[in-house]
Amino acid sequence: MAVKSPLLAWAVTLLCAHVRAAPASLVPPHYSGEAQRLADPTYGPIPGQSDLYNYYWGTDRPFPGNISDPIFPTQKGPPGVDDWVWQNLLSAEWLIFEFYQQGIEAFTPQDFVKAGMPNTTYRRLMEIRNNEAGHLRIFQNQISPTSIKPGRCQYRFPFTEPVGYMALMTVLEISSMAFLTGLVQLPKLDFNKGAMLAIAEVETRHEVWALLDIWKADPFGGPSDTIFPFAGEILDSTNAFIVPGSCPHENPEFPHNRQRLPALSAGKDTVSLTPGSRISLHFDDPRNQPYFNKRIQYYAVFFHATASISVPVNTRHWPREEIWVTIPRNFETKGVIVACVADRQGAPTKESVIAGPAVILEQPATLATALLRGKSG
Ligand SMILES: *[C@@H]1O[C@H](CO)[C@@H](O)[C@H](O)[C@H]1NC(C)=O
Ligand SMILES: *[C@@H]1O[C@H](CO)[C@@H](O)[C@H](O)[C@H]1NC(C)=O
């Protein structure tokens, strides 16, 4: 920007100084304030302009993953129209980033080779971890200076060895892809929709790498990935990985307008999760079970590619009798199927969903049932 008059130059300097320096009053005293430097989007390595987010081969957390505090607003005023969507995404990204960071800390390159995986596996995981650090920074920068940028919590993931770790990675990546198809429907600004699509594409590359190199499977997932319209419901299910009470108290609710739906999965006697398989519905959390009104017809709604298929379910004698349903045999065995229980055909609104969603991995299909056995056994 060319600044002509000295008075204007002075005004601009004052304005910039105001934007950069956090009003101390907005930062609670129990924070060091170090994270506040990140309120300036030009601080530290910039995604797309730094190789840190590609080729950093250290085991310590890369920037900005190494700075865990929330970043407090630096300006007073109303939030940006899409701030809450980016806040949801940033909180979710902390979880994904930490998943890769924990894998890098828990394993060595040799652990993956011994498990029969390529000798490039560990490096690829580092590269993905670095991409995820770039996502953290991008999301921080997309939240406007009038809103808080959520900090890191503590996370616990159910893995103990490399194969289980890579299985969970595959599920997390494909869940991110499905989640982003719903999230991209929420921003008001077109630029933000484009930015979220660009992030979804990166998650797809991560997934394709795992399919090819780790599972030696067909890398393609059919003509369309799965659209699940209620992104917050997929996010809510990731709360299971957050250590209760470990998030900074100032973080916004995660996800925004949390529904706390009963978690859904296939019963432990399930032998297959491919289309045409008969499964019983299991509600994982004994303290959060669904309520079924005897006069309402409920549906298991299965989303795959751009369609959904609703199957009426008999809930009248539950929990005395299990609820059984057949996964629609019309679907191809590709990508994922996202299932939920709804009180209306097609689950037209998020309020119509009363349990789930469950992300059912179809590719590699054998992995899906192995994961289920791991959970119940
Ligand atoms: C985080 O990483 C950045 C960039 O590598 C570094 O300058 C900064 O000192 C680190 N901060 C902490 C707290 O480790
Ligand atoms: C990694 O594996 C490839 C192909 O299997 C092999 O050609 C290469 O020498 C290996 N590299 C190392 C460092 O072991």
Task: Record the SSE blueprint.
Blueprint: H1 6-20, H2 52-55, H3 83-106, H4 109-114, H5 121-142, H6 162-183, H7 190-214, H8 231-237, E1 264-266, E2 278-283, E3 298-304, E4 307-313, E5 324-326, E6 336-342, E7 353-361, H9 365-376
Keywords: Signal
Pfam family, one: Ferritin_2
Organism: Podospora anserina (strain S / ATCC MYA-4624 / DSM 980 / FGSC 10383) (Pleurage anserina)
What does this structure look like?
The protein has 377 residues and is an alpha+beta fold. The protein folds into two domains: 42-221 and 232-241, Ferritin, CATH 1.20.1260; 264-376, Immunoglobulin-like (Sandwich), CATH 2.60.40. It is 36% helix and 11% strand. It has nine helices and seven strands. It has helices at residues 6-20, 52-55, 83-106, 109-114, 121-142, 162-183, 190-214, 231-237, 365-376, and strands at 264-266, 278-283, 298-304, 307-313, 324-326, 336-342, 353-361. It has a four-stranded antiparallel sheet with strand order 4-3-6-7. Strands 1-2-5 form a three-stranded antiparallel sheet, with no helix packed on it. A hairpin with a 2-residue loop joins strand 3 (298-304) and strand 4. Helix 3 (83-106) packs antiparallel against helix 5, helix 3 (83-106) packs antiparallel against helix 6 and helix 6 (162-183) runs antiparallel to helix 7. Residues 1-21 have low confidence and may be disordered. The protein binds 2-acetamido-2-deoxy-beta-D-glucopyranose (NAG) (2 copies). Residues 44, 63, 66-67 line the site of one 2-acetamido-2-deoxy-beta-D-glucopyranose.
